[in-house]
Every structure is written in structure tokens, then in C-alpha cells.
Amino acid sequence: MSALLALFLAAAGFIFWQGFGAEAAFGWMLLSAAIPWLFVLNMIPPMIWMERKGCAYIQDRVGPERAFIPGLGLRMAGLIHNLADVVKLVTKEELLPKHVNRTFYVAAPMLSMAVALLVGAVVPFCHELRFSDGFVFRAQALDLNVGLLWFLSMSSIGVYSVALAGWSSNNKYGQLGGLRASASMISYETVLGLSVATAFLVHGSTSLNDMVSGQYGTFLEVLPRWGICTMPVGFVLYMIAALAETNRSPFDLAEAESELVAGFHTEYGAFKFALFFMAEYVSIVVQSLIIVTIFLGGWQPLPWNLLHHDWLVEPANAALVLRWLLGATALGAGAFGLWCLKWHRTNRLRWKDSRKNEGIVLAMMLGFGPALAALLAVLLWGGPTSADGGVFTAAVVEFSALAGKTLFLCWVFVWIRWTVPRFRYDQLMHLAWKLLIPLGLVNLIGTAVLVKTGVI
Amino acid sequence: MANTPLKQRGIAREGGYLLEIVKGMGVTFSHLWKNIRQPENRRTVAYPEIRNPFPPRFRSVHRLTRHADGAPRCTACMCCATGCPAGCIHIVAAEYPDRPIEKYPARFDIDMLKCVECGLCVESCPCDAIRMDTGMVPMPAFTREDFIYTKERLLSHEPQVAPNGYRPRRGDL
């Protein structure tokens, strides 16, 4: 993580040093490699927080709120628990049981994390940045023309990590969990492939860049041409298959704690377990990114042709949008600061240590400070004027749109987990092979007919 | 129903299942929203900082009551020590030289390691000298001596006042 951050900073420094544009091509290359991983890895703590706090609120509980930074007293509504987790997992003894197959036992968690991270490499994070000197930068680690195929092939390698972990643990529960996980992942990969195939048909390409730019405009005169409107059945199929692919509830039979202790990671502890734990969230984030890219317009801020990229890169328009966004940030952050102060007034007597100051610290750090900065930026700076400034602003706006949509989908994953009970194993298989795959085939044929007749 | 394989149900039922999931998500979201809007309505209590009072008739740690002049009401009649099924009350009686009530306890020790919190001492006391209305639970300690509550400690305990001002009377206990 810190190495990635160093890479990111080095790349950014190199770009600043060489001037933005073609001379800094090497720095841009480093940056494009760092962006997806930084994004995905930085989403892990918010995801874990969302899971814990979301499930607590859904179940009428309070959720984690105790861990805090001594001195500052910041609890951040439970976000600090992630730090405590890291300390706990890193300082724990790295146990290597005697009865395991050492090579695969150690390799499996690494493989799961590596695969989960590699999958995200093909996602475009914003429209390519066309600088005024002709240099083009793609915020995408791998600009493959078979991008989606890379995604499919890489995510199917993910089965190996689970199967290997289950088998190499030399443990009945682990073995059963690994078997269940591989069976469900292989079955639902078929569903995934069938629903993605409709996207191939609609957009006539397997490149994710083409898919995003193909989602501008309208469909049937009124609807936006986003994938969720052109292929709604494919979207539902993909959502279900993505839940099974990431081994999330209601398809988390691989780690059904009432039957299999912890499934394939029963024998894992300390940081090897943490790798599995993080890989689960990384794959959720990556699946959300892919769903957003295929079905929800990718980095497009708004459906139809609103805030179209060609309109957004004009410096004047970019400045306008930026001013609105900064103003909204100032308002939101200011409201948050006021809310923090109100919270502080009602809760300050509750704690006897540094936690009693939390409301004020948060109000300053996340409320009034950013609000003031945004306000000053609006009043004093006024937005970009050069062509490159417009390009940058458009990239920032589009990246924020992508991040927001991804965050929402991640929340949907959490939301479904705490709503739907777990399937039985035979129901899982029946659902995949007897319902979803036929449905996917019919959907594929139907979409092919619609594409051929020119409706889509 | 639960054991019916999916193949016997048909696509229409499964479509219904998808709808039910969406409904269920609505239910969970309503809980989430309610708890964000009104966090004070949750039942969870932040325990060490906030403590719910015990119900008024809860038999908590004993206390010895006093006369208006501060002297203990206890006359060392041994009714409580006799009635105690656990045998945890030890009284050493002494005599006042100058008061109409002649006896008082020189020592009044309750061994909390033996006490079963049955309340028979309170019921057997003819003078209303011992009560179990402090609202405290016996706290853990590191030595056996710390579990023996002396007369001074029992006299220092204060009664718990319920939030509505209710304090149990003798007949309630």
C-alpha cells in the first residue's frame, strides 16, 4: 500500500517536473499503473466500515464505535476500528500448521489478492486525457481491445485460490468450502459470460473504453443508452452472478459458518487471513467497477448527453461545473461541521478522555476546513482557463462520478448481504443451471434479434 | 415448501422471489433510515458510561440504615444472622452506656462470597435496619478480605433513587 502510494507520488512528481504532456510519458505510465490499485485498495477500509456499520444499523444496533486514536480522540464512527484490525492482524503470530501443504497453503491467499487486484486493471477511470500537445493519457492500467475477456479470464483464475486454499489446508471443512466455492464460481461464471455477451452484441466491441463511449445518447428516444436500459435482464443476471462470483451472501456457502466453521479459510490466521478478507472486498469493488462500466455508463457523470465529455473539456464549461461542485462541497462540508458541533454539544459529557473533543476535531477537519478551502477556491481561483486545465477538470469530474457510482454499488452488495438469507447448496445449483443459464441464453438470442433489427 | 426443489416451482415463482428480495431490501433500508434519523431510539446502551437503573425491587448490595442522629438502627438482635441461609452475616454486639436502646453492633460483617442475595435478612429485621436497595451489584475484588463488607462500609451505602423518584418502602421489600 505504501509502496503504491510512493509510486503514485513519484509518478506525480515526475509529471510535475517534466511538465504535463508528452515529455512526462514515463510518469504518466507509472500513474496509470498506480491509479486502479490505489483506488481499489483505498476502497477496502470504507467497504469494511460500510459492512459493519450498515449491518448494525439494519439490525437496530449501534455497531463499532469504541476504538479511537489516543490524544486526538477520533473515533470516526467506527472507521478507526480498521486501524485496530490492521494492528491486530499484523502483530498476530504467523502460524503454519503442520498438516498443510506448505507451498499451496501460502500461495493461495497471495493468489486471491493478486487476481482480485489484476482484474481491475482494464477499467477506464475517466475519458482519455487529450493534452494540447497531442499527448494522450488513459487512466487505465491495461488498454486492451479485449478488456472484458481479460476480466473474465482473470476472475476465473480466482477459483484456483479458493480451491487451493481449501485443499491445501488438509481439513474437511476447508476442503468442503473450497469445493462449494469452486462449484458455485464455475457455474455462475457461465451466467456472467452470457450476460456479458449481450454487452458485446450491443456495443459491438469487447473494449471497455468503447462500451463507455457507446453509452452516450438515448435509447428508444427517451431512455438513456446506459446498459441498464438497453439490457435490463443482463443487468439482473450480472448482479446475481457477481454476488456468487465474489462468494457473497446469499451465495456464501463456501464460508457458511453454521456448517463449515469458516469454509476454505478455516486454517488461516493472521495476515494470511487478512489477505483473504481484503481480497473479498477488493473483488466486490472490482465487480462494482465492471458493473458500472458496462451497465451504468462508466465514468459518465449523467445519463443521456448531459455533461457530455466534449462539452465538459471546454475550459469555460469545466470552470462552471467545477464552481458548482466546489460550492456544493462547501455547503455539504459546512453542514457536516454544524452537525458535528451539535453532536458534540449533546455527547461531550459522555466520555472522560480525549474522545470528548471528537466533535470539535471532526467539525474542523472534515467540516469547516474543507468548506473554507472550497469557498476560497470558488472565490479566488474561479476554475481552469487553459485547454489542459479543462481536460484535467473533466477527468476529475468523471472520476468522481465513477467513484460515486461504484460506492453505491458496493453498498448494494452490503445491503443484499444483510437482507437475504443464505441459499441451500442444491438451490444454488438449481438456480444457476436450470434458471439463470436458460434465461441468459434466451436473453442473448433476444438481444441479438433486437440488435439485428436495429432497436438497440 | 422449503424442501420443494426449485425445478417444481417454475419461473413465475422465481420472479416473485426476486420481487420479494426487493421488498426485503426495502424493509432493511427502512430500519437503516430510521436508525440514522433517530439514533436515540435504539435499545443499545453505551454500558460503562451510561447505566440503566435497576428495577426498584431489585435485591442489590445491602446497606445499614441509620437513626435521625446517625446511629445505626441495628440493635444486634441477631434475627438476620439467624435467618441467613448462607450464614454470611457475623455480628458482634456491644452495649451503649447511656442510650435507651442498649445494644448496637460493634461489628457487622457480611461475607459477600457467601451471600446468596436472598433478602431474608431484610425480611427478618424487626427494626428496618438492613435494606437491599442500593442499586449496586457486588463488585469483584482481588483479596478475600475485600469481599467482607464491614459495618462502616454498609453504613456508607446510599439508596438508589429510581428515575421517577420512587423509593421502595419497607412493605415492598
Task: Report on this structure.
By secondary structure, chain A is mainly alpha-helical. Chain A folds into 4 domains: 1-42; 43-79, no CATH class; 92-304 and 425-452, no CATH class; 324-381. Chain A has 17 helices and 4 strands. The two termini of chain A are 43 Å apart. With 173 residues, chain B is α+β, with helices and mostly antiparallel strands. Chain B has 2 domains: 6-41; 63-172, Alpha-Beta Plaits, CATH 3.30.70. Chain B has helices at residues 11-37, 79-83, 120-124, 151-156; strands at residues 63-64, 89-95, 103-111, 130-131, 148-149. The longest helix of chain B is centred in the N-terminal third of the chain and has 27 residues, at 11-37. The two termini of chain B are 53 Å apart. The chains are: A mainly alpha (456), B alpha+beta (173). Chain A binds chain B through residues 54, 57-62, 236, 350-351, 415-416, 418-420, 426-427, 430-431, 434-435, 439, and chain B through 5-7, 11, 14, 18, 21, 24-25, 27-29, 31-32, 35-36, 39, 42-44, 46, 49-50.
Tally of distinct domains of chain B = 2
Describe the main β-sheet of chain A briefly: 2 strands, antiparallel
Fraction of residues in helix of chain B: 10-25%
Strand order of the largest sheet of chain A: 1-2
| Largest interface: pair, residues per side | A-B, 22 and 23 residues
Strand percent estimate of chain B: 5-15%
Give a summary of the structure in a few sentences:
The complex is a heterodimer of chains A (456) and B (173). Chain A is mainly α and 456 residues long. Helix content of chain A is 68%, strand content 2%.
